[in-house]
Design a protein that fits this description.
Blueprint (H helix, E strand, L loop, with lengths): L3 E5 L2 E5 L9 H8 L16 H21 L3 H29 L4 H16 L5 H19 L6
Antiparallel strand pairs: 1-2
Helix pairs in contact: 2-3, 2-4, 2-5, 3-4, 4-5
Length: 151
């Protein structure tokens, strides 16, 4: 049979003419080219940046209330309730982001939500904020390494 050269993405590829077993020449050539892989110097973070931002926001919001409530005896008794509220809100927000936006499976999204909720639920705004800031920085650096080099 006649081989017809065609140009695909700047390369000349020789493909058999239409063959019933393989479809058209263009179909055969398209199967021969591998997709471009997303190669980064720094891998993407395990948590979606929006989930990290939600953790920081909830930790700061309820952490301020935690800190203020320790000034009174009644406030100290309310700290476990505030921890539970912070945990619950962080869990729901991170689970929603990881499942809905990041398209994680249920088990992965659940594990990430539990982890971030525990860190946000710790009294005083330290753990959730620090972890969220680290993950946001990681996401930013990772996306910068993926930018085109301008060659």
């Amino acid at each position: 049979m006649n081989n017809k050269p065609i140009i695909i993405e700047g390369e000349i590829v020789t493909v058999e003419p239409t063959d019933i077993r393989y479809g058209t020449a263009a179909d055969t050539a398209s199967r021969a080219i591998e997709p471009v892989k997303d190669e980064r110097a720094i891998p993407a973070p395990p948590i979606h940046p929006l989930a990290a931002m939600a953790t920081i926001a909830l930790d700061a919001l309820w952490g301020a209330v935690d800190t203020a409530s320790t000034a009174t005896v009644v406030g100290i008794l309310l700290v476990p309730l505030l921890m539970f509220i912070t945990f619950s809100m962080a869990f729901v927000s991170v689970l929603t982001v990881q499942k809905g936006i990041a398209k994680d499976g249920w088990l992965a999204a659940f594990g990430k939500a539990i982890t971030m909720a525990i860190l946000a639920g710790v009294p005083f705004p330290i753990m959730g904020t620090a972890t969220g800031a680290i993950l946001l920085g990681w996401a930013g650096i990772s996306s910068l390494t993926r930018l085109p080099s301008g060659k």
